[in-house]
Design a protein that fits this description.
alpha/beta
């Protein structure tokens, strides 16, 4: 498998068209640049959109899904590799192990939790892989402001800014990956 980029993103199908477009663009561009995709294994929402776009562009796609979600027929079974885990914890651990970099697209509670846990693992030295937050249409501005507040109020140190990068577009994500991929 080539260098793998894990994409965290929402599974909701009730989002604006702009979010669908960025998910498809990212999946296709990752594949065209020779990156493999690691994703949450679901066929719905942006998760399915990014995976389908990567497959359509000829990319290698690895899905990681907990048994309970596969059993609800939410798994994208036609990916190159599908890993079924016992639970969400094992899913996240597997995704972190199999990826060389991480990108957070807009998403909800699960997406936020995944990127925050990945940043925390990096902070604690469990990995040193690039973490990129795609702040499309300012979606992550409130989270980034919370990070700023943590710096101002002493809950995070200035050097923690190096844990992540912020991109405003798919092309910026690709530039960051090229520059920071191990």
């Amino acid at each position: 498998m080539s260098k793998a980029v894990c994409v965290y993103c929402g599974s909701s199908s009730r989002v604006a068209q702009a979010y669908w477009d960025v998910a498809r663009d990212l999946g296709a561009m990752l594949a065209r640049q020779g990156y493999s995709l690691v994703f949450g294994g679901g066929k719905i929402g942006l998760m399915g959109a990014v995976a389908n776009a990567a497959m359509d562009a000829g990319g290698y796609v690895l899905g990681v899904i907990p048994e309970i979600l596969r059993d609800r027929e939410l798994a994208m079974e036609d990916v190159d590799e599908l890993i079924v885990t016992r639970d969400l914890h094992e899913r996240k651990e597997t995704m972190i192990q199999r990826a060389d970099a991480f990108v957070a697209l807009p998403g909800g509670f699960g997406t936020w939790e995944e990127i925050i846990e990945t940043l925390t693992h990096k902070l604690l030295g469990f990995h040193a892989k690039p973490c990129i937050i795609l702040n499309q249409n300012g979606y992550y501005a409130p989270l980034l402001e919370m990070f700023e507040r943590a710096y101002r109020e002493g809950f995070a140190r200035e050097e923690h800014r190096g844990l992540y990068r912020v991109a405003e577009s798919v092309s910026q994500v690709l530039k960051l990956l090229e520059r920071e991929m191990p």
